[in-house]
Specification:
A hairpin with a 5-residue loop joins strand 8 (130-137) and strand 9 (143-151). The strands form 8 sheets. This protein has a 4-stranded antiparallel beta sheet with strand order 2-3-1-6, with helices on one face. Strands 8-9-7-10 form a 4-stranded antiparallel beta sheet, with helices on one face. It is 30% helix and 24% strand. It is built from 15 helices and 24 strands. The radius of gyration is 45 Å and the shape is flat. By secondary structure, the chain is an alpha+beta fold.
Length: 515
């Protein structure tokens, strides 16, 4: 049973707080509360999440009200399954100095793939109290063949190294040693490039080399420990393999002698074997150096972006057109996979003054048949920021909810938008004038001079024609209410412009509408 961490070496981390790792991303605080409340009263639970995505980071902290309950949970629930994955429990250590000091930390390698966290814990727990135990895994949750065990005391770690180092675990001889940081390994053992014994060979797939021929190719340079050609599921060579020598000198001699040599009309690549993360770091550093070199070469203010180029313009023609403004270090037109121009390119001058002059003179100039667009070249990030700033300025004065640019059509300044005028309701005894009477009135008005023509705003409406029996059509209730409402609103019978038995003429002159 794990004793409570009440010693001076362990008094810095929370007495009643546990760290819970290797959790499924879907685990929530409610799931953990249901699990750990069986051990005792839980004060609080927090699942650590990403600040932006709010997705679980795979670990949590469980705070118990009493330390005895936290110890019970650590002893009985460590490596239990929760949603199909074993959780890893340890005392919460708020102060990272104990973890970073390396005291009591042990490194184990050459582990069998079947050994998991619980198996490693059970193997080393006989030597002392374990604070943390973990087997390194990849993205598929498969073991990488090495792990770490952090003991409470350095004496327990030394005893584990003495007893387990060189022993067989699941028929594999394991190495157990003191954990060293990368900096310590570099100082003690040197850089891997200066002490490698394993080399990587590729590009011999078309040569169809057998394992005997492959081994004979590297035997003259030293004693070979192992030699293997990687093959697929069908037993066919994948075109690369590994050769391990007994000494570093032999492996270096083989790399220098065979790298770039032709074997059966194929050129071999022979170099030091690297781990995946080491190779990625090396390629990343190489890319950053090339990027900085390119930025220093094409410094700000000397590289120009030219677009709207004609298809017949090539690199030489582009350099010729811009060479009159200064010394050109490079001129390049972008092309696609088929070699066809993309219609834009770059011209780099030796000084910013020459580039500024070229922008002033060449922007808008017609070359062959198209006007050029010339501006200072920008990086992708700078161009995005510039476009975002332009968009913010354009949309700054628009009302909320407005979508799209404001209307910018050509509207005359003296244009007057017509305003709809209200029209009164027509009662039963208000009907339009018959057509023949309107035509007669129109003919009389045409005879008057144009300057004296005036159209009255209202016209008289004749009473409704009586039916065959001489009786008018009875009014409906709705029409009666409308008449009564109109009379009550006016207080009396309407007089003046909108008198009874009149209707407003729908065709009014512009002068009358503006009054």
């Amino acid at each position: 049973m794990n004793s409570l961490p009440n010693q001076p070496t362990t008094g810095n981390y929370g007495i009643a707080s546990l760290y819970c790792g290797d959790l499924d991303p879907d685990i929530t605080e409610a799931n953990l509360y249901d699990k750990f409340s069986q051990a005792g009263p839980v004060a609080s639970i927090r699942v650590c999440r990403d600040v932006v995505t709010k997705r679980s980071l795979g670990y949590a902290y469980i705070n118990f009200q009493q330390a005895i309950d936290a110890e019970r949970a650590l002893d009985t629930m460590n490596y239990e399954l929760i949603k199909g994955r074993p959780m890893r429990l340890m005392w919460s250590q708020r102060d990272p100095s104990l973890r970073k000091s390396g005291v009591g930390n042990v490194f184990i390698k050459n582990l069998d793939k079947s050994i998991d966290n619980k198996s490693l814990y059970d193997t080393f727990s006989v030597f002392g109290n374990i604070l943390s135990c973990k087997v390194a895994t990849d993205e598929r949750n498969s073991s990488k063949g090495y792990g770490f065990v952090h003991f409470e005391t350095q004496e327990a770690a030394d005893q584990a190294i003495q007893k387990v180092n060189g022993m067989l675990l699941n028929d594999k001889k394991v190495y157990v040693g003191r954990f060293m940081t990368r900096k310590e390994r570099m100082e003690t053992l040197g850089h891997p490039a200066t002490r490698f014994t394993n080399i990587y060979v590729k590009n011999f797939g078309e040569a169809n080399l057998s394992e005997e021929e492959f081994s004979q190719l590297f035997e003259p340079y030293g004693k070979i420990v192992s030699c293997v050609i990687m093959k697929d599921d069908n037993g066919k060579s994948r075109g690369f393999g590994f050769v391990s020598y007994e000494t570093h000198e032999a492996s270096k001699k083989a790399c220098d002698a065979l790298n770039g040599n032709e074997v059966k009309n194929v050129k071999l690549y022979v170099a030091r074997a690297q781990k995946k993360n080491e190779r990625q770091a090396e390629l990343r550093d190489k890319y950053e150096k090339l990027k900085m070199e390119r930025l220093n070469r094409y410094q700000q203010g000397v590289n120009l972006y030219v677009k709207n180029l004609d298809d017949v313009i090539d690199d030489a023609r582009l350099s010729e057109e811009f060479s009159v403004y200064g010394n050109i270090t490079s001129a390049k037109i972008m092309v696609d996979e088929k070699g066809n121009t993309k219609g834009f390119g770059f011209v780099c001058f030796s000084s910013p003054d020459e580039a500024t002059k070229a922008v002033t003179e060449m922007n808008g100039r017609i070359i062959v048949s198209k006007p050029l667009f010339v501006a200072l070249a920008q990086r992708k990030e700078e161009r995005k920021q510039h476009l975002a700033a332009q968009h913010a300025v354009r949309t700054q004065g628009m009302p909320r909810g407005f979508i799209g640019p404001a209307y910018s059509g050509m509207i005359p300044t003296n244009y007057l938008m017509p305003v709809a005028q209200p029209r009164p309701f027509m009662t039963t005894n208000q009907v339009p004038r018959p057509r023949w009477q309107q035509q007669t009135q129109g003919q009389q008005m045409r005879q008057q001079p144009q300057w004296a023509m005036q159209v009255p705003s209202v016209v008289q409406v004749q009473p409704r024609m009586q039916g065959p029996q001489g009786a008018q059509r009875p009014q409906s209730n709705m029409q009666g209410q409308q008449q009564q409402g109109g009379q009550m609103a006016n207080g009396s019978q309407q007089r003046g412009r909108y008198a009874q038995n009149t209707v407003r003429n729908p065709m009014l002159p512009m002068a009358d509408m503006l009054m």
